[in-house]
Each structure stands twice: as C-alpha cells, then as structure tokens.
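Crash report, auto-generated. Payload:
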Amino acid sequence: MLRLEKRPSPSAFWQWATPVLAVVLTMIAGGIMFALLGKNPVEAIRTIFWDPLFNEQFAAYSRPQLLVKAGPLILIAVGLSLGFRAGIWNIGAEGQYIMGALFGAGVGLALYPVETRWVFPLMVVAGIFGGWLWAMIPAILKTRFNTNEILVSLLLVYVAQNVLASMSLGLLRNPEGGGFPGSRNLGQIPAMANPELIPGTGMHWGVIAAFMVVIAAYILLQRHILGFQIKLAGQAPRAARFAGVNPQRLVLLCMGISGALAGAAGLFEVTGPSGQISIDFNVGYGFTAIIVAFLGRLNPIGILLAGLLMALTYIGGELASFMLGLPAAAIQAFQGMLLFFLLAVDLLTNFRIRFGTRKEAL
Amino acid sequence: MTGTARELLAVDNVTKAYPGVVANSDVSFSISEGEIHALLGENGAGKSTLVKMIYGLVKPDSGTMRFRGQAYQPAEPKAARATGVAMVFQHFSLFEALNVAENVALGMESPPPMRELSGRIRSVSEEYGLPLDPDRMVGDLSAGERQRVEIIRCLLQNPKLLIMDEPTSVLTPQEVDILFKTLRQLSAEGTAILYISHKLEEIRTLCDEATILRRGKVVATCTPRDRSAREMAELMVGATLTPPARAALPKGDIALQVTGLSVASPIPFGTSLKDINFSVARGEVLGIAGVAGNGQDELLLALSGELRTAASTIQIDGQPLGAAGPNQRRAAGLVAAPEERLGHAAAPDMSLVENALLSAAIRRKLVRGGFIDWDATRSFAADIVADFDVRTPGTHVAARALSGGNLQKFVVGRELLQSPAVIVINQPTWGVDAAAAAAIRQAILDRAALGAAVVVISQDLDELLEIADNFAALNEGRLTRPRPVEGLTIDEIGLMMGGAHGMEVAHHGH
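Recovered output after restart:
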C-alpha cells in the first residue's frame, strides 16, 4: 500500500527536483500518447524539445523565437508571481498588456514624426503607466469595496480587447494604411522601434527588461522586507497583520507591479516583434504567464526557466504539427500534461511516500 | 465510583512512534467501570496520542487494548463510538451558524427527526444538570455552553467511557463545579471517565486514579487524593519545581493607559469591547482573567495595533497611539504575543529565522533601508532558542515542526527579548509543560522587574494569581475595575468573571 506522510518541513531537494521529474514524466506520457496517434514518439519529443534549438534546418528561424516568446512571458509572470505569493490574484494581465501597448503606442504616435532618442523611453514609461492604471481598477475596487480582484481583472481583459479593437479601427489607425485596421508600423520608425539587439538571438529590450526583473524580484524576495511581507501575507494573513503589514497597501502594490510589468511587456511587443497595434495584437501571453508563474514555483529563477520551457513547447509544438502532422489538440494535451505532472509531483515537496502498511496492532 | 472493580478498558504495552519521536512507549493502564481516571503529563508527554489511539484516530504500532475483556482495536472513531467510547475535544468542532440540535445531529451516525432530537437534548441536559436550549445558535453561546453541546452529543450515545481533553480550560470556577457534579453523576451511573488535564488540584478533587506520563512512558500510577499537587507535578516533570520568585517592587510611571476603549470585533461571532479602562505602571503585572470568548482576542488586537481606534484611547508612555499600526506601537515600546501561535503569532511554513524577523524587525533593527539583515536575524533567532530553551534541531526549521510548547517558548521569547516597555501576552503558557510554564512566568516577572509594564491575559487563574499584582476580568467585552491580587478570594474572582453564565440553577434537585 502507498501512504503519504507529511514532512516536518518542505524538502529543499524536491522543490527543485519536481519540475525536472515533471518534464520527464510528461515526455513519457506524451510519448505514449504520440505513439497511440501513430507517430514515432522519440521523433515527436525530439521535434518539440530539440529541433527548435539545434536542428540546422529550423534553428535559424526558431532559436530567436525562444527569447521573443519567453521574454514577455517571463516579464509578466514575475509580476504576477509577487501577487500570487501574497494571495492577490491578478488574472487580467492580458488586459494590462493590451493597455500598456496602447498607452505606449499612443504616446509614440502622438509625437510622430518626432525623431529623437527619448521617444522610446517615454513610450516605455507610458506603457508601464497604462498597465499600472488598468491594474489599479481592480485593486482600488478591492480595497474600497472588497470586490473580487479575480473577477474584475479578468472581465477588464474583455474591456481592453474592445478598446484595442476600437483603437485599431479609429484613433490609432494608420492614416496612410489605405483604410485597413491597425496602426503605423512602429518597428519601422527608428525613434520608436524595439529592434533585435544582437542579430539571430531574438534579444530585444523587453528580454533584457525580463532578465533584469528576474534579478530584481529575486533580490526583493530574498533580501527586502517587502518581499518578506509579500510571502508572509500569502502564507499567514493574520501573522502578516500582526507583523504590521497593511493588506490594502499590499494589494495596491502587488496589483500595481504586475500591471506595470504586463504593460511594459505589451509596449516592448508592440514596438518590436509585433510592430503595430492591430485587432489581434494580443495572443494570450497574459494568460499563459499565469501558468508560467506557477510552473516556476512563483520563484523568479524558476519563472525564468519555466518561461523558456513554455516558449520551447510552443515553438516545438508548432514545429511538430507542421513537420509530423500532429494535431494541434495533441500539442495542447501535451502542454496540459506538463502542468498536470508538475502539480501532481509537487506533492513530494511536502509529503514523503512510504510503501507497505504499518504493522497492525496485534 | 460505584465500587465495582470490573475492568472496562485495559491498555497493554502500547507503543506509537512518529518520525523522529516515540509518542508512546510500552504504555499500560486500565480503567474500571465508573472510574474517573486522570491522564496526567506535560505537553508532549504522549497524552493526546494515547487517547487518539483509544478513540480510533491513530493506530498503535504495537501493543493491545481490551474493552470489557474483548480485543479492542478501533479502525476509526466510528468504531470506537459503536463500542461505547466518546470524546470531548479541547477544541470544539461546532458550526457557529447552526443551532444546538443541528450541531448535535451532525455528529451522529443516524440522527432522529429534529423534533425528537430536541426533546432528547432537553431531557439529557436536565438529567445531568447541563441546561441547554436546543434551538439556540451556537455562535451565541459561551465557551462553557459550547462544551455542554459537545458533552450532550456524547451522552446521547450512552457511552461507557467518556474521554475529556482539558475540559476546564474554558470554564469559570463555578462552571467547573457544575461540570464536576455532572461527571460524578455519570461516574455513579457506571460511566467511566478518562480525564486529561494538567490542573493538579482539579484532579485531586475529581479523580479516583491517575496515570502519569512523561516522555511517552508511564512513570507512575497513583491515587490523586493521597498525593499533594506538588508531588504529582514533580512526578510529571521529573524534577523539583520552584515557584517563580517575585520581589516586591516600587511601581514606576504609567506606561500603558487605556481610556474608554470601545471597538467592534473583527471576528465573526466575536465580542466587541465596551468602554475598557485601565492603566499599567512600569514594573506592574496586570492579570486579565475571563472565560474564553469574552473579548480576550479583541483586547489583544486593540492593544497590539491590529485593530485601530481613536488615538487617545491607548497611550504608550504618554504617546497617544490608538490609531497607530503594530509597528509604530513597537517603535514606542509595546510588544504583544497573541494566543494563537500558528497562523497569528508565527507563520507555520516559515523558518524560525523568518519568524524571528516577523515581529522583531523594528525593535531589534533587523532591517536597514528596507533590506533585511539576515545575519543579525539568524543570531537573534539563535538567542531566542538558547535563552528560552526552545527544543529544535535548528533555527532553519519551519515553525509548524515545533511542538506547541516549544513554539510558545519561541514566541514569548521573541517578544521578551526586545527590551520592551509594555508587554501584552494572551495565554502565555497555554499548552506548555509545567517546567516551561514556570520558566515563561519567571521571564515575564524578570522583565517586569526591569521596568516593563505587563498585561497578561489568561484563562488560567492559578497562573494569574501567581504572577499578577492587580487582577481584572473580562466579561462580555467589559473589563472589571482592576483590584490588587492580595486578598482576593476565588469566589470574588468567579463573580468578577461573570459567575456561571446562568447556570446557577443547574444542579437543583440532584
């Protein structure tokens, strides 16, 4: 018989080993699924995890994509993880991401055709402000009226999407675009562009920002009293109040930080890889980042790795469906397995598995 | 006490080990029908594990039990109840938003229709002198009344053995008397009672036999009436006890002044504080008694700064700080230790180092420019562990890994080592073994001797009478006028605490 036994304190080893174990288990279970679909499992797994980075034929295109996709995921997920640790659930990063892009692009386009170096920094500030502002709505409603931030922030995503559509059709539409929806291509305006900094790597300012945020968040959580308060509020809210943590201030702060970072991610995207405001500008980074945050154990370093892994499964998944004709649903199931196994083996951090029954009293 | 010596339950060489600790080692004892048997021991001596095994919550690793001569090994509490074993836990499992009858029904295997059940509750409560209205909401009941709900729930199953875990910790002296009458009546009718307590005087008045546990082993069996409380305490602790030394000290200036403190409770079914006034001088210990749920938690919150009021209601060293938060009050010199250790005074999953930071960041200057000085925090945590004899493998372990008594020592130590001007402690020795309790009381008195004003909120009257200079009681959110402890009688104290909560008529006719 299998029994679970609670560990006196969480195991440091398993905290780091569970993600690796989860990936291995996903490969095994996913391989079985691919085999049942009539594909060679080894080839499928290799196409997902290996080819995007090292296959000579595809790597030139897909390798830079890794950072392009991981950058915004990491940037948003780190912000979200702070709130999640404190028990503050910002589910609306997607909306804050859109608003960041709109504010940033709006400021840039309002200044068009000014060509000075400070336009881009100004747009970054505006993008951060836009995301922050959008996150303040659920935050203030929560602190003032005790509304549920999960619901409000989520619903504001749909509001933001409509604002986005309206902007790409109206105010921000390219006057020289022949009536097509969508703004000017910011990537082609030197003062506003967020270009690939090192050719062939996908590295842009947003990726650099993501790495910096990872480091900053790591220091915040390890060394700063605010990081301690965030952890405390999440683990033991009453102890946090006893320690003098003001829960309302923490809500404003965590929502604000996650909104600002999501806004920044949106701005870097609209000025870089995406290039313009369009109706379908947002592709779900804000939602996927929630998964990344948990995949990374709400730990900045973990999120960095989880963001890269998530980006890899997306790129590899696309490649696999393209090369091997794997159905998109199978790829999604594969990604779902990853999450499932991660949560399942997470148990090992706090519990020990014992085999065999205890001797019964005779 | 029917005089029949027929054996009801026999526990024979029972052993139970948990990872890292042997909770019970070769424990043997027996209870006769109708006997009131005390199970005595310090915290962590293995009392809880033992009764959990009898009640079917835990399986022994080895050893046997017999119930009326039959082999007894309950796989779950249901089986234990079916055999005739019932238990009243120290912490009640009642739903506050349901009424008494509904709560009783929830604990039964096959509850009868509600009207019939209400009738049975009434008749049982009258028969045993435990008045209880089946239609009342549990949220509105006092702690003593809630305990009656649990007892009646057990009695409806006609138990042969009733286990009671520290039942008097929530009762006034008068309520204790009523409970004892009920227990004696049950015993006279042939129901055996296994009575867990660390209050030795109670055991001497109530119990026929006592089994004393220390570190998981039976160290003695005795007849409590033939032994002094001190003898039993020393058997329990395995050492000679010395009562805390208290020097008569000249009182200093007023360090804590509370004026007209009224505040609504933030706790559902909590008790609002109503116009509380008192002051504590440097070097003075004010003891605040009261039955649980009469505003103790709220008073602590209001004093610690977790609950805010008008600035003028609370003055610390003359500074009006009623509107200030916990950290401003700490800066002014006030430290507080809440009753609930895990989740309020300490974060369960955080290490002792992190928990040391939790409340000591301000006074011990563990944070500079927003950044935590972990080295200083670690050494502070190590100091607490060393000075207060906290038994732990190290300061890196999570707070929840510590036993209740050890965590209490850590929490109290953390506050006392901050050289405070005002100390507020709720239940300083709750669940702590006798030796540690004595050490904690001594540490509190030492701080008072160094000039701290101390407020001790406790449900343990003996404790308050031992360390307090002045005595007041909380009753439904009101505080009586503090009176000097010298010359107070137990009856006066009981009246200050609000008597027996309408139970005076309880045992008429019995």
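Post-recovery validation: Chain B touches chain A through 45 residues (CB under 8 Å).
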